[in-house]
Amino acid sequence: MLGDWAQLWEIVSTPDNVPIVAMLFLVPFYTWYWWRQAKATDQLIGQLEADPQMAKTHHRKVFPFKTGWDREVHTWPYLMRIEFLAAIIVTVILMVWAITLNAPLEEPANPNLTMNPAKAPWYFLGLQEMLVYFDPWIAGVVMPTLIIVGMMVIPYFDENPLGNGYYTFKQRKFAIWTYLLGFNGLWMLMIVIGTIIRGPGWQWFWPTQTWDHNRLIFEVNRDLHTLFGIHDRLLAGIFGAVVVGIYFVVAGYAAHRLCMATPFTRKIYQRMSLTQTLLLQSMLILMFSLPVKIALRLLFRIKYVLVTPWFNI
Amino acid sequence: MPEVQSDDPILKQSYANAILVSSFLLVLTLAWALYQEMFGLRPWRFYQTRFVAAYSKYLEGQKPKQKAAEEAIVKSPEYKSLMERIEAAQKAAESRAQEIRSELAYVDRRNSALADTFMTERARIAALVYQTEISSSESSRKSRKADVDEARNTPLVLDLPTRDGKTERKTLTFPQLEAEFTGLKDRKATLTGEQARLSNGIRDLQQQAKAYFEDRMVGLTVSQLGSLQTAAKKLDPVIRQINVGSAGLVDRCQSCHVAMDPKVVPANLVLTKADLGMAKSGDAPFSSHPNPELLKIHDPDKFGCSGCHGGNGRATNSVENAHGRYEHWLWPLYYKENVEAGCQSCHAADMVIEQATVLNRGKELYRIKGCIGCHRYEGFDNEGEQLLSARQTIRTLEQQKKDLELNVPRVIAEADHAADNTTAQSLYQKANDMRVTTSNIDARIEQLDHRNASLMREEKKIGPSLKEARMKLRKEWIPYWIEHTHEFRPTTKMPQFRLTKDEVQALAAFVWQNALTGPVPAKQSPGNAEKGKQFVETRGCLACHAMGEGANAVGGTFAANLSRVGEKDNFDYLVRWVRNPRERTRPYDPIARVDLGPEDYSKFNKPFVFDLDHDRSPDGKHLLQVQLPTVMPNLRLTIEESRDIASYLITLRHAGASYPPAEFMDDAKLKDKGRALVKNYGCASCHELSGLEEEGRIGTELTTEGSKPIERLDFALLTEEAKRGEDPDGKKSPRGSWYDQKGFFEAKLKQTNVFDKGRLTAQLKMPQPGMELPDRTALVTFLLGSVDQQLPQEYIYKPGDARHDIQEGWWVVTKYNCMGCHNVRIGQQSVLSGLPQYQGDTKDKLPPQLIGEGARVDPAWLAKFLENPSLSTTDTNRNGVRSYLAVRMPTFSFSDGEVQKIVRFFAALGSQSMPYMPPKLEPLTDAERTMARDLFTHPAAPCLKCHATGVPAHDASASAPNFLLTRERLKPAWSYRWILDPSRIAPGTAMPSGLFRKEGDVWVFNGQLPASFKGYTKDQADLLIRYLFQLTPEEQRMLVGRSPAPGGKPAGQ
Question: Cβ contacts (< 8 Å) between B710 and chain A: which residues?
């Protein structure tokens, strides 16, 4: 039953969830704010590039600035005063927060009674949500490891020197799109789903839908191979491996196409070594696998694609 | 900032406004934080300030009244005369006191003048003596000795004050000085002693005056009020906290409830909201504890507040938090109507708790309404469980024995063929051991049997045995009853089940077909209904049963209302039932799980006889259940009386009541369906049913229901309504959200299937108990108090000896409804005493009250009496003690354990120690016997006028017990107190008071003393008691002739 605004209010007003509600607004705001700045810079770059003289003195590819602007300004007072202002505002926010919201303490833990829904701290809710789509050791061990490793290797395959110290879109399209998709589109979204959408029994409740503890839903999740009438374990494993293989090929091709999409990306691609390219491609393929699996699970109720005695995907 | 010639926005942008605004905001936030810190999070500050203002005003307002009261006392002649006496005494002592004072002053002066010199000299001489003692050579010792002597003999010149204020110069040696000093000290001691003696008398008088004042002064004196006012003015708003380390309680309740703090409001001052002029204020937590008596036995310093009341004692930042009325605090404050739930934490084992009437009622209801039938509760009615486990053990043991017996010949055979001697011997030994083991098993079975015999007597079912249904009930009535339970009898214990017509038919058919078919009770001829009615009204039936419907109902509610009993019962059975309600149609063999009939007995050539004396199965192996498991006792009526009563009862019916024919009752097809339903609804929990004797309880155990997590209480589709505070009927709930234990229990008891609301497949089978709101509140209170214990063990009330006996005794006393006929504890009124026929003069026809019974009777006699209240094996149609009472003390067939519990219970209630040793009474001399006889038959105290004697002609109008019982029955000490002043022990008794008067140290007869008493100086009441305790039947018979004719005003006790 939709329209239960009290329920929605209860969820969003829980002190635990306040950061996420704030995030709901802050992330789009800062994305927009970045976008505005990047637009201005990109426009400036365009102007500077149109004027060869200016390009020489004011652009230098990595450091665009307008005529009449200083090339450098002093930290004191120009940076410090802004930081000071920010410090004041953050202090005010923290104090108001501290006064109005108490620590969300609950009753002593009761080993005989598990809370429902049992939710991880908000920053882990994305990981918890991933458990719906993958086996625990894939969602809880392999994926987080890959995410961390992936972020660690970014400096090694991103050799684009541009966009350092100023906002730009034009000069870092590829990186920015990857970020928007991977962080905003996947990570943030999953945290929001985990907080606001997932209710008792980790069932899907639309906002303003009552979190009814007695809710029963009938849903059967199937493995992909059963849809194709394969029931033999070995055949199913082979079938799953083939499907996963196809995904890797298709996704690899798609990633490659992406890298070759514009002259700009082609240039980047040409600069990369084989190792860098392969690394980048595998990270992209793995990242795409998450939304693909989410779609398979939510839209087609498919539980596993590849079933083996050791792990399932 | 330097002037910059630049277009750079970073340089040109000014942040002054932004910084100004945010700094301003920061200051505001800081102020807000400080306010929160000082006041916002400390609402108790406001409460304390408000309280101080109101309290000071109240104290001020009390002053004139208290002053007047004070003056009234001070001006009373008694007080005045006391004051005058004090004054006179002071005056009398004054001159001597003056002398002593001046003499003491002189002694002190003189003493201080010489003390310095004396002490210096003493120290010097002591040092010299020491030096002498440790001298190593004789010569040095000598010279040191000389030094000592010299020091002692040196004259000392002193200026000493004299009595007349001058100084005299004296020259003294040290020994003289010492004598002077000691003399002064002695003198001072003598004088001080005298001074104290002088003032002692005055002090006594002053204390008398003070005591007189305090005894008469109600409330506080003006000076006390004043000092409280001063203290209140200085009151600093602080957190007032009780810290009970052992229980982990930190209670800051007094921070708002200031008047609960004895340091602020003294314990003897009871403050109410009205006193403070805040009667209408909804937010004035300022009354002092409404029950200071309770606090006296539960010192808040030891028990805290939240230990009993619940709530979050640590929280001080809001009312909701402090009262624990939020989702995460598991022990919220009990609401006012359920406040006694807190008692249950420590007093779970007590059946009756003083001052906790609601909780007591809850516990009583839990038992008598039969909740216990389906819902187990630790400590309640566990005879059934014990029986089951004992029977289980017996079965296992019998199997073991059988196995062993089978094995013995095998082992012997093996031994016979053993290869060598050693093996053979060890095998023979083994066979022997096995035989011995079987005998041990027999011994154990015998013991268990013994226990079972007791348990079987104790085990009572809530409802009647349905094995007898066919004997007892009208066939067509059964389905009607199941369907219209509360319509037929609104006060019944039987709850109303929600059943379809088919289910009703199946259930009724099962009950009918499953019941015993014979042997049928003997055919009875009709009796005299008129007489029967009289018996019902006088024999005491009304202590448990009520007659008449609705508002006209008269009698007890412990058992069924009999007003329509004629519509359902079979006359022949009813006669049997009235005669002996425990009589079974067939005895039940719980080990073999069958009801035995004549055919089983004839197999062993035994007559079909079974009762408490013939309680073994015909094969002699098992103990049988020979009684019906009902609490209804045997009133020892004759068959004629039973017929009369039954004839009367059978007339109790609605005119023209008829029931539709019920052919389906014999439909064999319905039986299995009925059995399934009986199991599903747990009918066997309350009723005895063939084949279902060992059915377990079907409901949830409720021992710790009050602390069940809210998630475990199934609000089903009402969850959201409950959280929103919407009642099941859609109205706004007055309490707001009722999503808590209290809300669940209340809703469920009001309408047991309320949580099936909106569900397509209704599942709840708990039937509807017919209960009004106060009873439901009592049960809810009981359930709320039934919590998993948080307090440490030493807080649980686990009384030793006497109090423990009381605890245990209550279970028995309430189980058999002793309080229907007797007043057992002070303040309680029996059911009978409230009936119209016992008002006014007929009060003496009531059964005796049992307050102080333990002090009155010999426990050994009481045990005997309880087992057989007729005190006779032949003439049982009578009361053993009060044969003149129409009300009958019935035979309950108590188990030995129950008898012991009752006896110890009364002993403990009467503050008697157990075991009781009758004291040795001084034998009477011949002269004393004559005197006692004279007293006994004295016209001013005609004992035998009322007391029964056993002579039928005399006893026809007797109204007090026979004296021949005295020796065995009563305790002399009690009897002595009784004849001195019976009305103090039993107010309203017909036994006259003032038979004796006190003369010096002894009690003497308050009437014309017979001549024989001349020169007798001993206690005459004691003489009479001694005589009574040595009275023989012959003696009494002889005296019957001498005493005045019986009749006249009857006596009670």
Answer: none
Q: How many CA atoms lie within 13 A of B398 on its CB side?
A: 13
The residue behind tokens 């400080």 is B34
Are B275 and B290 in contact by the 8 Å Cβ rule? The answer is: no
Nearest-CA residue of chain A relative to B26?
A92
Rg (CA), chain A: 24
Q: Which of B876, B901, B904, B902 minimizes the C-alpha distance to B889?
A: B876
Residue A79, min C-alpha distance to chain B (Å): 9
Contact (CB<8Å) A106/B29? no
Option in A6, A68, A212 nearest B6 (CB) = A68
Closest by CA to B1052, choosing from B1002, B1003, B996, B990, is B990
How far is Cα B822 from Cα B889, in angstroms, rounded to an integer? 10
- Does pLDDT of A212 surpass 50? yes
Min Cα separation A96/chain B (Å) = 7
Question: From the CA of B220, how many Å to the nearest CA of chain A?
Answer: 46
Q: Could A91 and B26 be called an inter-chain contact, meaning their C-beta atoms sit closer than 8 Å?
A: yes
Question: Which residues of chain A lie closer than 8 angstroms to B328, CB-CB?
Answer: 105-107
| Mean pLDDT in residue range B730-755 | 92
Residue A294: closest CA among A189, A146, A179, A216: A189
What is the structure's pLDDT at B1053?
39
Round to whole Å and give the CA distance between B520 and B573.
8
Share the mean pLDDT of chain A: 89
Alpha-carbon distances of B152 from B113, B126, B161, B169, B488, rounded to whole Å: 20, 11, 24, 19, 115
What's phi and psi for B583, nearest 5 deg?
-70, 130
Question: pLDDT band at residue B457, thresholds of 50, 70 and 90?
Answer: confident
* B324 close to B332: Cβ distance less than 8 angstroms: yes
Q: Is B422 exposed, middle or buried (0-12, 13-18, 19+ CB in 10 A)?
A: exposed
pLDDT at B4 over 60: no
* H helix intervals, B956-995: 966-969, 972-980, 982-985
Query: Which two structure tokens, joined as six digits, stand for B1051?
Result: 């006596």
Task: Kindly identify which residue of chain B lies nearest to residue A6, measuring between CA atoms.
Answer: B724
Nearest to B654 by CA among B747, B548, B804: B548
- Reported ipTM: the value is 0.86
Cβ-Cβ contacts under 8 Å, A107 against chain B: 328-330
Q: Which residue has the tokens 């017909």?
A: B990
Question: What is the spatial distance between Cα B310 and Cα B333, in angstroms, rounded to a whole number?
Answer: 4
pTM assigned to the model = 0.82
Q: Are the C-beta atoms of residues B624 and B615 closer than 8 Å to each other?
A: yes
Chain A partners of B22 at a C-beta cutoff of 8 Å? Answer: 85, 88-89, 92
- For residues B515 and B707, give the distance between their C-alpha atoms in angstroms, rounded to a whole number: 42
Report helix, strand or coil for B144: helix
- Strand duo B594-595 + B996-999: pairing: unpaired
- Smallest Cβ–Cβ distance between B328 and the set A68, A106, A113 belongs to A106
Residues of B in contact with A84 (CB under 8 A): 19
Q: Do B19 and A81 touch (CB under 8 A)?
A: yes
The helix or strand, by DSSP H or E, that contains position B574, with its residue range, turns out to be helix B571-579
Among candidates A92, A105, A116 on the partner chain, residue whose Cβ is nearest the Cβ of B26: A92
Closest CA to B365 of B558, B549, B223: B558
Task: Among A167-176, B751-760, B981-990, name the one with the lowest average pLDDT.
Answer: B981-990
What is the spatial distance between Cα B1046 and Cα B1053, in angstroms, rounded to a whole number?
A: 17
Question: Quick one: tokens of A261?
Answer: 């999409």
Are B736 and B725 spatial neighbours (Cβ–Cβ below 8 Å)?
A: yes
B20 to chain A: closest CA residue = A85
* Chain A / chain B CB contacts < 8 angstroms: 71
Considering only the C-alpha atoms of chain B, give the largest distance between any 2 of them, rounded to a whole number of Å: 143
Q: How many alpha carbons fall within 13 Å on the CB side of residue A119? A: 24
